[in-house]
Amino acid sequence: MEILKHVLVFLHFLGFSGLIGGALAQIRAPEKTVTRIMMDGAWTQLVTGLLLVGINEPNVNHAKVGIKLLALLVIVYFLFTNRKKILQSNAFFTVLGLSVFNVA
């Protein structure tokens, strides 16, 4: 069970790096779009985060998990609704800011 937990944490960090890396790669671009790596990173974080909560159920701070889940659902909403359009700067920086917030 400990190995599974470490694998899920590793995948969770990969999802985070994909989400943040995809956003930071186009921070200076005049037209910001939702990239595949950003979508995959967000979904990876969502799935692995839920699995980590399921594995660690007795030791989970539910308030912290709820806030992180809410922030990630907002990120997924912005990415999913704008996946075929150019991201407005406020939506882009909301996604980037909430992603960084989730780490803290």
Oligomeric grouping of the chains: single chain
Compute the average pLDDT.
92
Helix content: over 70%
With helices defined by DSSP (H or I, 4 residues minimum), what is the helix count? 4
Query: Ends: how far apart?
Result: 26 Å
| CA gyration radius, whole angstroms | 14 Å
Adjacency order of strands in the biggest sheet: 1-2
Shape: elongated
Structural class: mainly alpha
Number of strands: 2
The helix/strand series, from N terminus to C terminus, equals: HEHHEH
Question: In terms of per-residue confidence, which ranges show pLDDT below 50 for 5 or more consecutive residues?
Answer: none
The largest sheet, given as strand count, sense and whether it forms a barrel, is:
2 strands, antiparallel
How much β-strand is present in the residues?
under 5%
Write the layout of secondary structure elements.
Blueprint: H1 2-25, E1 32-33, H2 36-55, H3 62-81, E2 86-87, H4 89-103
Antiparallel strand pairs: 1-2
Helix pairs in contact: 1-2, 1-4, 2-3, 3-4
What does it look like?
The protein has helices at residues 2-25, 36-55, 62-81, 89-103, and strands spanning 32-33, 86-87. With 104 residues, it is mainly α. Strands 1-2 form a two-stranded antiparallel sheet. The longest helix has 24 residues, at 2-25. The two termini are 26 Å apart. The mean pLDDT is 92.
